[in-house]
UniProtKB/TrEMBL annotation:
Keyword Transport in record: yes
Any Pfam family: ATP-synt_B
Purpose: F(1)F(0) ATP synthase produces ATP from ADP in the presence of a proton or sodium gradient. F-type ATPases consist of two structural domains, F(1) containing the extramembraneous catalytic core and F(0) containing the membrane proton channel, linked together by a central stalk and a peripheral stalk. During catalysis, ATP synthesis in the catalytic domain of F(1) is coupled via a rotary mechanism of the central stalk subunits to proton translocation.
Organism (species): Welwitschia mirabilis (Tree tumbo)
Protein name: ATP synthase CF0 B chain
GO annotation, biological process: proton motive force-driven ATP synthesis
Keyword check for Coiled coil: yes
PANTHER family: ATP SYNTHASE SUBUNIT B, CHLOROPLASTIC (PTHR34264)
Residues of the signal peptide: none
Location in the cell: Membrane
InterPro entries cross-referenced by the UniProt entry: ATP_synth_b/b'su_bac/chlpt
Family: Belongs to the ATPase B chain family.
Length: 152
């Protein structure tokens, strides 16, 4: 409260400026200076507006480029994912074909071994069962069959 009272006392002791009046002397009123300052402000104000317009256009273009960049990045990412997926599928197919080929190869080898073993066993049985007498009778029998089929 004491500060407010001190402030009011200070203002009451301030010398009064006198009455309000218009000064018509151009040199004393700085109208020329004010006109120059206003002219400069208007001149540079137009430049500022043009600069703001260019800045807005540049910011708009930057935003477009940024959005297009993000879209292009997403598209490239999707393309890479698709290519990787296609490569993975191709590798999987190649693996399956190789496995199938190897299985067929093993199956063929087993068949050949079984056929060979069966043939060897059959030959062994025939060699054990056939003696010379039975062998000669079989040959005579087959020759007789061939003569019977021979047309005259």
């Amino acid at each position: 409260m004491k500060e407010v009272i001190n402030s009011l006392n200070y203002l009451s002791n301030w010398p009064s400026a006198g009455s309000f009046e218009f000064n018509t002397n151009i040199l004393e009123t700085n109208i020329i200076n004010i006109s120059v300052v206003l002219g400069v402000l208007v001149y540079f104000g137009k430049g500022v507006e043009k600069a703001r317009a260019r800045l807005w256009e540049v910011e708009k273009r930057v935003d477009e480029i940024r959005v297009n960049g993000y879209l292009q990045i997403e598209q490239e990412k999707e393309n890479l994912i698709k290519a990787a997926s296609a490569n993975l599928k191709q590798l999987e197919d190649s693996k399956n074909e190789t496995i199938f080929f190897e299985q067929q190869k093993v199956i063929d080898q087993v068949r050949q071994q079984i056929s060979y073993q069966a043939l060897q066993k059959a030959l062994a049985i025939m060699n054990n069962c056939l003696n010379t007498d039975l062998h000669l009778r079989m040959i005579d029998y087959n020759i007789g069959r061939l003569r019977a089929k021979k047309p005259n």
